[in-house]
Amino acid sequence: MQYIVAINAVLFDLDGTLYDRDELAQKVVNGQYELFRHQLSSVPKDDFIRRLLELDNHGYGDKADLYARVVSEWGLATELIDRFVHSFWSLYEEHCKASDDTRSTLDVLRRKGMKLGVITNGRVEWQQRKLDALGISSCFDTDLISEAEGVQKPDAEIFLRAVSRLGVSASEVLFVGDHPEADIGGALSAGMRAVWRVVPYWPCPYDVPSIHRLSQVLPLCLPTG
């Protein structure tokens, strides 16, 4: 699919789009079980991993709440809650790495003169630390984090702010994200074009192109020939 109006900027969601957030969460909870193996001796490892990933809800679960819940469910010491939360973020940052596919895709887009940006919901501290850990902060001309902006996806306002900061029109922008409503619905409501990075648990009701890896966005936004 090739758009008629030229695309001059590409905006990305962060979690689940610029890196595999589910794969990372799996590594984190595996690492946590090993760190706390003694305290978790009564909890089978598979049960710990399954329950944590379920409550994490692909990043939408509050960490303090979910660890308080499992501590209560398994009759663990309450002092473990803060230790679990701290170790979650420590391991997260340690394992948060950009894939070769992500790095090469961003490199190609920059070399082709595309303006690039990120729009992400979440706290400034952790969203910025994720970008820094991924090693891709310098790739972007702008990044908008909902806590700093006072507005979050899918509100069209945060998308339009990105458009303004990049100095382009919304019709020239392609947004890439994994969440059907926060990313795809929000981008479309702002007048952008959108690409859905496919995930198996959030069906997308919008008629937009879909990709399974980031590099598949290149033929959708770069001129051919």
Structure in words:
The chain has two domains: 9-19 and 97-221, Rossmann fold; 22-95. It is 47% helix and 12% strand. It contains ten helices and six strands. α6 links the parallel β2 (115-120) and β3 (142-145).
Summarize this structure briefly.
This protein has 225 residues and is α/β, with parallel strands linked by helices.
Keywords:
six-stranded parallel β-sheet, Rossmann fold, alpha/beta, 47% helix, 2 domains, elongated, 225 residues
Instruction: Return the CATH topology of the largest domain.
Output: Rossmann fold
Question: Between the first and last Cα atoms, what is the distance in angstroms?
Answer: 14 Å
Q: Give average pLDDT, whole number.
A: 95
Large-scale geometry: elongated
**CATH homologous superfamily label of the largest domain:** HAD superfamily/HAD-like
Please count the beta strands (DSSP E, at least 2 residues each): 6
Order of helices and strands: EHHHHHEHEHHEHEEH
Largest sheet: 6 strands, parallel
Number of domains: 2
